[in-house]
C-alpha cells in the first residue's frame, strides 16, 4: 500500500476521534466518519487491467470515473463539507495514482468543494498530457442571479480557465429536474426551472453550437428529481442528440427508488429509456450516499460468504457497472483506500451472475424496508443558516437504523425485553451522535424555517425528519 495511505487509527485521529470514540463505536452504531475507510479490500492494485467502455465517438472511457467533489483538505477532511484549504499535494497524488492505474475520466462542476474543485483539477491534470485524461464538468447555473445568458456563458468560460483546457470532453446541464426559487422567492417546478435556466435564455442552443465548434466533445445532462423533465429532454433527442446522461443508479434504486423517496424514479426505467436511444450513461450515487458501503451484519455476512476478499462497497460498484450501456461510474474518492478499492473492483470488472443479482435484489428489498431517510449527502441543502448539520444527522440515524441499533416503540412495550441491551444501544446512539455531529448542530436546534426544502433533490421533508430524530433522542434519554 502507498506509504502516504493513512491507516484506520490515523484516519480517526484526523477526524478528532480518539480511542474513546472507537470504544463507543464498538458498542453499537458507528459514526458516519469512522466507517469511511472501513472494510476496504486489501491486495494488489493492478495498473493495466482497468475495464473500458466506448462512447458514441469511439473514445475509450475508464469504467471508474473520478468524481471530484470530495477532495481532501489540509486537515484530511472532505472539501465538500469543510472550509479548510484543499490539499493540492494530496490531490495531485490521488490523480497521478488514478491515471497510473488506468482511470481516464475526471468529473467536476463549478460548485464542487465549495467552488474550489475545478481549480484543483486544473492544477493536477495540467501536469499530464491532455491525451491522458478526459474532462467532464457542468453548467451549474442554479442561482437566479446566473440565469441570464451573459452570466451563464461567463460561468462556462470560467470552467475552461480553471481547468486549463481549450476543450471539454463531456459537458452537462447540471441537475435537471430540480426546482428552484426566483430572486423574489417564488418556487418554480422542475420544468419551469429547465426552461428558465437553459431554454428561454438560449443557453442550450449556445452549447449545441459549442459542440459543433469542437469546444465541447459530448453534450448531455445530469438528472435529479422530476421525471417529466427527464422524459421531455429525451423526447428532444432527435433535435439535440444527447451524447450522455448522468443518473442515480445502484442496486437499491434499480427497483426501489420510489420506495426510498417518492420523488425518485427507479433507475431501471431511466436506464431502459436511455438504452432505447443508444445514449451512454454516467452513474452517480453507486453507494446511495454511502449507505451501501456499511450494511447490517446479516447483509455483510451474505456478501462475505460469496467473496471474502472483496469489500461490501465493491458489490455496489460491480452492480452499477454491470449493465452494458453504463459508460462510467463516478465515485467521489477522498482517501487513497477508496481509490485503490475501486480500481481493484474495475480492474477488470467481474460481471455479476444471475445468482448474484437475485441476492442483491433481496438485500435491496431489505434496505428499502428499513424506512431510511433517503439522504444521499449531496449537500445541496447546506449550509443551513442556523448551523444544522442536516446530512450528518441523517447519516448517523441511517447507519444506526441500517445496523439494527435503533430502539422502536414495540421494543419499549415488551416487558420481557433486555433493558441492559437497550441501555447499550442508547449509549451507542447518543455517544455516536455527539461524536459525529456537534451539539449545536443537532436536530433539536432546527426551527423548521423550511428554507432547505426547495434544495433537496430527494424531496425530503427535512424539518419533519429533524423533529422525528429529535423526538427519538429525547425518548431514549429517558431509558434507564
Question: What descriptors fit this protein?
Answer:
480 residues; alpha/beta; TIM Barrel; 2 domains; 8-stranded parallel beta barrel; two-stranded antiparallel ribbon; 20 helices; 42% helix; globular; disordered N terminus
Would you tell me the overall average pLDDT? 87
Shape: globular
Helix content: 40-55%
Considering the protein shown, what is the CATH homologous superfamily of the largest domain? NADP-dependent oxidoreductase domain
Amino-to-carboxy terminus distance = 46 Å
Number of domains: 2
Proportion of strand residues = 5-15%
Number of strands: 12
**Structural class estimated from helices and strands:** alpha/beta
Query: What is the name of the CATH topology of the largest domain?
Result: TIM Barrel
Counted by DSSP, the helix tally is: 20
- Given as residue ranges, the uncertain stretches (5+ residues, pLDDT < 50) are 1-28, 30-38
Based on the coordinates given, report the CATH architecture of the largest domain: Alpha-Beta Barrel
User: What's the gyration radius in Å?
Assistant: 22 Å
Task: Give the class-level CATH name of the largest domain.
Answer: Alpha Beta
Strand order of the largest sheet: 3-4-5-6-9-10-11-12
Largest sheet: 8 strands, parallel, barrel
